[in-house]
Amino acid sequence: MHSKVYNIRQGILFCLIFNVLLYGCTKQGSNSSVLFNDTRLFMDTYCTITIHGDIEPVLLDEAFELCAELEALFSITIEGSDVWRINNAGGEPVSVDPRTVEVIRAGIEFGVLSDGMLDISIGRLSRSWDFGGAKESVPLSPATLDSLLQTVDFTKVKIGNNTVQLENPDAWIDLGAIAKGYIADKIAELLIAKGVSGALIDLGGDVKTVGNRQNGDPWRIALRKPFGNMEEWIGITEVSCAAVVSSGIYERYFEVDGVMYHHILDPFTGMPAKTDVVSATIIAQDALIGEGLSTIAVLAGSDKARWFFEQSNGFIGAVLVLDTGELLEFGDIQFVRT
């Protein structure tokens, strides 16, 4: 069998846009409004933070330290993380950080909103696929797939007083569909508390903005063309104090004998989702909302996506790219096609 593996990080694209097109350097501006930015590797993706105001560059270190701290709570692979301890507790309640409870509660709410299409208890299933490796065949037999599907049910994730319990001891939770958005929002809260005038937080394609650019204009976010190269965009949107989050089947996938298998899994079939949505970009007040809705849109398809958008507090707008190449726009967005 012939296989190919692809793992395209949108964060690289955003770094190019902000560092080259908008500013072109690491530090600039007057003494009263200085711009700093830096890119570091967290959560298996490139994360870029750009800030300006009457600030010191050490604030970037604080922001990245918070990113590392939260990753150490939410990661499914870091031994000793809150998620790791929940998954390895044999169904017993586990005391966790209040922020972990926040993310898990949000995951359950997304499960309710989507009728189970976004299910955080998909951990056993998601970890059984190998979207970062190079396996030579589809990894799941029908019998294995059926067994794993028995562990997927977000309604059996129970939250107590800063405790989390998996009623099915064989289940695992995976917060990968929403954790980056939550972390981006928390970094924005930190920067605002520290007096930052404007910031752009890009965690591998999950973008959260604070204020505006140094010149007072909104932040300009380029949306990448699915399956295109890093310099091919479908358009540019402008936002202030909002989040822009994209999910797509082109981000991580592999091919076996000409068949594509992507990382956005349907929790009802255990297989990559099959809908008409190739890419979903959500503009929302919070990155957490944007991340959840962008995944739901890919899972649900364009016909159902509109209803989910309308039911969500904090939704501003969306751009969906369909498998036909057609672009659909929803809500109140400033989007210029290229």
Distance between the termini: 39 Å
Largest sheet: 8 strands, antiparallel
CATH architecture: Roll
Write down the CATH topology: T-fold
Oligomer description: single chain
Question: Secondary structure elements and their pairing?
Answer:
Elements: E1 3-7, H1 10-23, E2 34-42, E3 45-53, H2 58-74, H3 82-87, E4 94-95, H4 98-113, H5 123-128, H6 142-149, E5 157-159, E6 163-166, H7 179-193, E7 198-203, E8 206-210, E9 219-224, E10 233-239, E11 243-248, E12 252-256, E13 259-262, E14 277-284, H8 287-300, H9 302-310, E15 315-322, E16 327-331, E17 335-337
Antiparallel strand pairs: 1-12, 2-3, 3-7, 4-6, 5-6, 7-8, 8-11, 9-10, 10-17, 11-14, 12-13, 14-15, 15-16
Helix pairs in contact: 2-7, 7-8, 8-9
